[in-house]
């Protein structure tokens, strides 16, 4: 086997390798919300994926250790919110453990199926949970889109190299 020039020495699979590689992968930032027994829950995610056009379905991933997991594990519907570049603080709030995610200054309302819908986002969807698939220390949630709106124009918030950023021309 011939060595390929300019490649680093390969490392065995590990959580550190996974994190190091995915720091180089730019991803859109969303907030997932759900109704919960003790009030609404939500978390920041970069794992949103379009799954199917017919029927319209998407997926996202949530850690089983997340404070939002108990509510998401029981929820019939979830909200998906595409964040704009102006919403770095909102993304940070929903990513921070122990934060009052739905307190001021977060603006939201109860939407269809009791799902919390955030104000000021680029787009939002309410989705019916179709499946929860165990995947290591996470679950992949597959959901069918029920309704939503591309609320406003603007540039999306992006996560890259361990921080929230914006697209550049």
From TrEMBL:
Its keywords, alphabetically, are:
Oxidoreductase
Instruction: Identify the domain of life.
Output: Bacteria
UniProt cross-references to Gene3D superfamilies, sorted A to Z: Electron Transport, Fmn-binding Protein, Chain A
Give this protein's Gene Ontology molecular function annotations.
Answer: FMN binding; riboflavin reductase (NADPH) activity
Keyword Lipid biosynthesis in the entry? The reply is no
KW Oxidoreductase (keyword) present: yes
GO biological process per UniProt: pyrimidine nucleobase catabolic process
- Give TM regions: none
Annotated ranges, domain Flavin reductase like: 22-166
Q: What is this protein called?
A: Flavin reductase
The species this protein was found in: Streptomyces cadmiisoli
């Amino acid at each position: 086997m011939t060595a390929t020039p300019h490649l680093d020495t390969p490392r065995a699979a590990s959580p550190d390798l996974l994190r190091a590689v995915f720091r180089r992968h730019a991803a859109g930032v969303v907030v997932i919300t759900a109704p919960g027994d003790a009030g609404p829950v939500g978390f920041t995610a970069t794992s949103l994926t379009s799954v199917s056009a017919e029927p319209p379905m998407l997926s996202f991933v949530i850690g089983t250790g997340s404070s939002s997991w108990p509510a998401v594990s029981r929820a019939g519907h979830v909200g998906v919110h595409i964040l704009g570049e102006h919403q770095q603080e909102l993304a940070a709030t929903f990513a921070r453990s122990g934060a009052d995610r739905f307190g001021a200054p977060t603006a939201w309302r109860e939407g269809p199926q009791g799902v919390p819908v955030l104000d000021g986002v680029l787009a939002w969807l309410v989705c019916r949970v179709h499946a929860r698939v165990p995947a290591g220390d996470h679950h992949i949630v597959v959901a069918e889109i029920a309704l939503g709106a591309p609320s406003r124009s603007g540039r999306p918030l992006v996560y890259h190299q361990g921080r929230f950023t914006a697209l550049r021309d």
